[in-house]
């Protein structure tokens, strides 16, 4: 009985030992797996790191792009600055200088535009008999010179061999002297005779001399109609006017 019991104990001990070894082996295998996993994880981490660095590289690339963009923007800004500096303003200053020169020329123009009294030599004078108002003659003086001239006061007219000149219609006196630029004309009307026939001393005149004012030294001699014009003691003249309509009002 004791021998069988001992054998039984030995078998049980062997079985326990085997079980222990099996469990140990299993535990070691699991640990090995875990260790194997850990390196794999490390490898994964290592492989992930480059991608992160790649991303960083991309970010850096983007940053470089941004920097380049900024550089481009800066260049553009510089170009804009260059345009501003280029300086139409500088040109403007030059233009301003030119304008200043023109201003000087303007002074010369002002001097050139200073007018003197109209003379026979720089004008053309005509005398036209008009239908309205009745018994009126229209005198027209045109400036043929290169500068302005003034028609001062009223014309002194002399028909045929008359010894005196007719008076002016004072109501026709304008507010300012009539100034003629080159090519412009001034006007005056001559009342030849009374429209109602009330005048006296009438006669037919065939020639006319026109002094531009009572102090003029030379006279224009415009032609009269071939039949002549009838005048009497109602003879009057208007002051010089700047328009034909104003002249024929009197």
Write structural notes for this entry.
This protein is an alpha+beta fold. The protein is built from 3 helices and 11 strands; from the N terminus they run ααβββββββββββα. The strands form 4 sheets. It has a 4-stranded antiparallel sheet with strand order 2-3-7-11. A 3-stranded mixed sheet has the order 1-4-6, with no helix packed on it. Strands 5-9 form a two-stranded antiparallel sheet. The longest helix has 85 residues, at 2-86. The termini are far apart. Residues 29-109 have low confidence and may be disordered.
Draw up the topology in text.
Layout: H1 2-86, H2 88-113, E1 116-117, E2 123-130, E3 136-143, E4 149-151, E5 156-159, E6 178-180, E7 185-191, E8 203-205, E9 208-211, E10 229-231, E11 236-237, H3 244-247
Parallel strand pairs: 1-4
Antiparallel strand pairs: 2-3, 3-7, 4-6, 5-9, 7-11, 8-10
Task: List the main descriptive attributes of the protein structure presented here.
250 residues; alpha+beta; three-stranded mixed sheet; 46% helix
What structural class results from the helix and strand content?
A: alpha+beta
- What string gives the helices and strands in order? HHEEEEEEEEEEEH
Subunit arrangement of the protein? single chain
By DSSP (H or I, 4+ residues per run), the number of helices equals 3
Indicate the radius of gyration in whole angstroms: 61 Å
Low-confidence stretches: 29-109
Mean pLDDT: 73
Task: Characterize the largest beta sheet: strand count, sense, and whether it forms a barrel.
Answer: 4 strands, antiparallel
Number of strands: 11
Strand order of the largest sheet: 2-3-7-11
What is the CA–CA distance across the termini? 179 Å
